Amino acid sequence: MSILAVGSVAFDTVSTPSGRVENELAGAATYFGLAASYFAPVRIVAVVGDDFTAEHENVLKARGVDTRGIERAPGKTFRWGGHYTENFSEAITDFTELNVFENFHPQIPKEYADSKFLFLGNIHPTLQSTVRREMPNTKLVGCDTMNFWIQRTLPELRETVKKVDVLLINDGEAKMLSGESNLLRASQKVLALGPQALVIKHGEYGSTVFFREGAFGTGRHPFRAPTLPLAEVVDPTGAGDSFAGGFMGYIASQEEINREVLKRALFYGGVMGSFAVESFGPRRLLNLKRGEIDERFGIFRELTHLD
Amino acid sequence: MSILAVGSVAFDTVSTPSGRVENELAGAATYFGLAASYFAPVRIVAVVGDDFTAEHENVLKARGVDTRGIERAPGKTFRWGGHYTENFSEAITDFTELNVFENFHPQIPKEYADSKFLFLGNIHPTLQSTVRREMPNTKLVGCDTMNFWIQRTLPELRETVKKVDVLLINDGEAKMLSGESNLLRASQKVLALGPQALVIKHGEYGSTVFFREGAFGTGRHPFRAPTLPLAEVVDPTGAGDSFAGGFMGYIASQEEINREVLKRALFYGGVMGSFAVESFGPRRLLNLKRGEIDERFGIFRELTHLD
Asked: pLDDT grade, residue B286 (50/70/90)?
């Protein structure tokens, strides 16, 4: 079933120890859409400027991503420049030019109204809430956010989080949102805000999904998925959005939604994130084969499963 | 089969957000011995001072730990004082009084000579090498170290590492020892120093075992074990030594040593580490039941295994 993803399309200029790219097609909606496209039909709502060409659009279309919801606005597309600390633990922003993204007001094409899955990318929580309200008949809503919104728009963010099924954030964001330095207590406080499940991403250490009691069936414990130890991380930009794409994509591909599906989705999230970091921008996500994805899923299983 | 453990016995004074203890029986050999005692017979070689009483010794004896190798020297037992940063990521040392530990020269009682497993706790690498040479007929040798020895006695440490089967260190130590910030490349460089397997501990994110090609049977990948997300970490002191005790203890309890055994041992290491941090000092390790250990092993499995 189809997934509607709302978020940024951007041109990134990124330096890492492996090299540098300029104005690479990127942004949360791009990474998410490409990663999810291997599992389910994806529709994007975003805004771009005059500099977004047919060639750029074809990158998405070639993966079957529905681009009718990408609005063209006069001006330039959102641009971000950054580099990484040596162990890739943190992105250092060199510049941010919001451009047309500054006045982004997501417009959902009527053809998208029947989407059963919704992913709210990292945008102002009030915009996330507006989109959420316009899509009342979804089966599952996933949501991302970041420190910026936690610090500046906490009341609005709480309203958003109350209405989503799965919140996907990283350790630092979970601790900031909850005011708790212990991850289990942080997860309990975040779940108390409303979501049915909380996915916390631990970077190179994988991810954990915490469930609200009784949500998605029964079970006592959280669940942890690994990442793949890689000898070379080329560019970690977009790993989290690609993770979300694999996670939501796998869920959308399944008949039922239950804890076991969410656990597998966590593995597929890790798998797509591990592909994303193997190249600059979303390049590695353009020409994967489903067999490669399943093979890596098998490696993730070998990495963690006893006989 | 019996495990011989060489390391420190100490009295710790520790402050954490959960409280404070003074002169608590601790030290690497204590944590290791207590944790391993649930799986196999353990023999300790250490040094203590006049202040080490029969009552202290009985804590070990009550768990069946053989204390004949604990040497009494005139003076005071090694004392360490410390506290933790808020998220427990780092121990801050308040004081270190080496006392009798400063002149520790491990003496192996002849009754210990038939030990089939050897654990070289975190002491000067030259002492580790000496003990290693005196125990040539072991089935498996495990070894710990720390940043202090990597920085100050690297040539000696390389000699030690060359002669052990499994090195157990944490992320920071692996990166420092290898000069690599990428964990997979770091593991490759450390394995090139000689050990058959390298266990890297990631704190609250679990641990990974990397195998030298062909060591302990065949297989393509490393293996990762989780930790248990705990709502309250009371005192993380000794978690690494307790991990090593569970890891080595489980291996010593098995007929054969192969990759599958080492993978399970990694789980048992995490299990014993997770118990250790639930109380001050090694208190939680004094009265466990094997059933509790196996139940937690089951939780670790549920945390990571898909149906």
From this structure: very high
User: Does the beta-carbon distance from A299 to B260 stay under 8 Å?
Assistant: no
DSSP lists the bridge partners of residue B83 as B15, B92
Residue A118, pLDDT score: 98
Alpha carbon dihedral B10, B16, B18, B24, in 10-degree steps, equals: 10
- Nearest residue to B122 via CA among B94, B76, B87, B153: B153
Angle at B21 between CA B19 and CA B27, to 5 degrees: 125
Residue from the list A182, A233, A260 with its beta carbon closest to the beta carbon of B307: A260
- Side-chain-side CA neighbours of residue B158 (13 Å): 10
Q: What is the Cα–Cα distance from B32 to B87, expressed in whole angstroms?
A: 24
Residue-wise pLDDT tens digits, B185-230: 999 999 999 999 999 999 999 999 999 999 999 888 999 999 999 9
Q: What are phi and psi of B49, to 5 degrees?
A: -105, -170
pLDDT at position A87 is 75
Cα atoms in the 13 Å half-sphere on the side-chain side of A255: 0
Q: Look up residue B58 and give its amino acid.
A: N
How many angstroms separate the CA of residue A182 from the nearest CA in chain B?
Answer: 7
Return the closest-CA partner of residue A37 out of A78, A5, A12. Answer: A5
Within chain B, where are the H helices? Answer: 28-36, 54-61, 125-134, 147-152, 154-162, 171-178, 183-191, 239-252, 259-276, 290-304
Q: CA of B179: how far to CAs of A86, B123, B190, in Å?
A: 12, 22, 10
Chain A residue numbers with beta carbons less than 8 Å from the beta carbon of B204 are 183
The whole-number pLDDT of residue A217 equals 92
* Cα A236 to Cα A241: distance, rounded to the nearest angstrom: 11
Task: Yes or no: say if B77 and B51 are a contact pair by the CB < 8 Å rule.
Answer: yes
- Find the length of chain A: 307
Quote the CA–CA distance of A218 and B32 in Å, as a whole number.
Answer: 37
Q: What is the pLDDT of residues B224-263, one digit of tens each?
A: 999 999 999 999 999 999 999 999 999 999 999 999 999 9
Hey, is A142 helix, strand or coil?
A: strand
Quickly count: other Cβ atoms within 10 Å of residue A297's Cβ: 18
Q: Which residues contact A195 (CB under 8 A, 6 or more apart)?
A: A143, A161, A162, A164, A165, A166, A167, A212
What residues of chain B, 109 to 168, have a C-beta less than 8 Å from chain A?
A: none
**Residue in B221, B267, B306 nearest the CB of A306:** B267
